[in-house]
Amino acid sequence: METNLIPVEDICAYHHVEINFIQSLENFGLIHTTVKKQSLFLPVDELTKLEQYLRLAHDLEINLEGIHAVSHLLNQLQNMQEEITALQNELNYYKQLNQHH
Amino acid sequence: MDYIDYYKILDLKKDATTEDIKKAYRKLARKHHPDLNPNNEEANKKFQQINEANEVLSDPEKRKKYDKYGKDWQHADQLDAQQQQKRQYQSQGGGYGGNSYSGGFGGDDFSDFFSSMFGGGGRSSRNSPFKGQDYNADLQLNLLDAYTTHKQTLTVNGKQVRITIPAGVENGQKIKLPGYGAPGVNNGPPGDLYIKFNITDHPRFKRKGNDIYIQEEIDVYTAILGGEKIVETLNGKVKLKVPEGTQPDATLRLKGKGFPLYKKENQFGDLYIKWQVKLPTNLNVEQKELFEKLSKF
Fold it and tell me: What sections of the sequence does the record tag as coiled-coil (chain A) (predicted)?
């Protein structure tokens, strides 16, 4: 078994969550799982995302449709934050030029 | 250690029902949940307060103790002892058991007030694994530090963390180090460490994305007649040819002599050199005559 794959069964036992929930997240395109030897696995780099969705469902009682919407908005937020940082850095460059003159 | 008004935190009246508490908690948790407020330390702190308030007020036993002592919580043990003595005087035996709030909650994201009143750190009621708290740290680098990949040791919450900083990090960029946050609760995974880079400006090299801009002085004779100029770049000195008739503010681009691209090996931005033509001052009589002669051509 590849070390960067986690059996979904283990995740379900650890987080006390039904496998259906994870399959539904996949159906919504929110995570990607892999089937190997008839077992379902989650790539390690998908774990943080999955745990975030589990927290949203558990802590805030957000349903799958809600998680889908939240995930989309969080991605937009992240892109905007990156854009703001890039713009701030560019603005800083022009400020430095003004100080120089 | 100050008294914390849990009712105020959840915006509730003292006679709030269990349903009111649940509703208020859900409402505020939706607003301040760390997953909905990435990189927002203020929201994170607020969410911890809301959790703590909910932990106390949603548990009838804890709420009873909290309501009973209120602002006198620091003297709770003394008050208990006094009441016990009173009872012993009034009736023989009947020893007052009091409420025993043992610790063993684990985790460290609850206030000192909570720990002192209820022991431990909370979150026992659900007994489910929780990811540890994420840590945030700011790291100041100068521009030249950010130019090369290097290792640096940081102290985060008393622990030494050695990290590799890839060349080309941007000012304001955040990187995540999974598992370097606070330990998990109830066998939950540890939190993550987020490091934000603050890159200080350099007096000579100005960065815009991956390109670097500098200004270089040349005298009027080199500008007019052409010549050579040794220019210091980020990775050493280079000898440049100044073409004849170079105008003030003319810009020269040196491809691949700028800043390294983040996590892209051997890829660099460009270096732009703006020529600043320095005019001579305090000319002597002979020089003035020569310029006058020139001006008549």
Answer: 70-97
